[in-house]
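protien #1 (seq + structre)
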Amino acid sequence: DYFGTIAWRDDGSGPVQLGLYDGGNRADTGLVSNEPVAINTHGLAVGEAARYQNGVVSGTDAWIDNGSGPIRVGLRGGDYESSSGQASIRVGALNNAGWSAGTSNTYDGDSVVGRHGWIDNGNGTTRIAQGAGPYRYDFVSVFGLDDQGQAYGSAPRLNQAGESLNRNDAWLYDGTDTHRIGLTGPEFTDA
C-alpha cells in the first residue's frame, strides 16, 4: 500500500493511475509523489516522481506512460546521479509522436555542476543543446518540443573554457544541431 500524490488520467471508462510507485520512488512509509506534467492528444502522459532514500526525498525521476505502464525517461546514472544517490531528472514537454524532452542535473560528488537537455524518442535518450556556434551550454532549460522532434529553450552562454559571458541564449534543437535563435544581431548583443 502507498499514499501521497497520485497521478491519473481518465481514459473515458474511469481514472487510470499514472507514474512510478516502486523501488526508489516509494518511501519506506509508503509515501509517494507523482505529478503529471503533460498529456498529448493520444492520451500519452509524462510526469515526475519523487525519489526517496531512507524516507527522505532525494530528487525526481521523469516518466512517460504509454498506456501500458510507466517508463523512466531522461539522462540517468553516471554523472547524472550524485555520489549520495540524488538526481534531478525533469520532464518539460511531450509531443503527439510520444517523444518527451527535459533536463537532468549533472554532479561532481554531491555538487550540481550542470543541467543537460535531453529528448527521448521511445527508443532512447539523446543529449541536446550542448551549445551553438562558439558557445557552450552547461545549464540548459527546455521549454517545448514540437511534433517533428524539435526542442527549444534557453541557457546561459559560456565560452568553450566554461567561463560565463553574462548573456543568455534562446536555442532551437532541430533534431541534429543546436542553433541560437531570437534577437542576436549587434544591436541586441555584443556577439
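ok now protien #2
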Amino acid sequence: HSLDSHSHASVRRLSQRYTHEGILTMYKIAIFFLLMLVSNISFCGVTIHYSGNVSDIKNVEKIYDISKKYAEEKKWKISQFNNGYTIYPAEWCEPLNIKFSGKKLSEDFVKTQFAGIDIHIEILGLFTKIKPFMQKLNVIDEGEYWETKNKETLKVNFEFVTKSMAQIKSQHPSAKGPTKLPDGRIIDLHR
C-alpha cells in the first residue's frame, strides 16, 4: 500500500472511535494529517485562531494592559513591541501575539497541542478577559472549549491528535516531530 492509503485508513479508524460532539473537529484534523502526506511539513495540532477589532482606539491600550497583567499573573514570558505583545505561555506552546494595527487585532493563531489542555484553557481565559473591550472578537478553537466550555471535549480532541500522530509515526518511521522552529512555531510531523 502507498503512504497515503495507509495513513488515510489509520486516521479513519481512529476517528471512528470517537462519536461525541467533537467529531467534526476530528475530521478536520484528519484532513490536515492527510495533507501532511502530500507535503513534507504539517501544522495540524490543536490550535486557537483569532482576530477582531475594537470600536474605540482607546480600548487597544486597555487590551494591552490586560494582556500584560494576565501574562504576568500566569508567570508567562512576555515581549513588548511597538504594536503589541508576544506572550510565551509554555515551552511547547506557540507564541501568542496580541498586536493591533489601528483598531484591528492582527489575525493569528497559537498551537497549544504540545503544551496541554490547561495552557489551552488559560489562553482562552485571556480572550475572555479582553472580549468586553472588543467590538468583535473571532475565536476559532479547534479543541472546541471556547464554544462548549467542556473540558472532556477538549481532552478528547487533544488525545485524538496525539494518537493520530503516534499511529502515523508507527507506520512511517521517517516521520519526525514535534519540532520547534526558531520563531517558536511548532511543526507537528515532518519527513
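The two ends are 18 Å apart (CA to CA).
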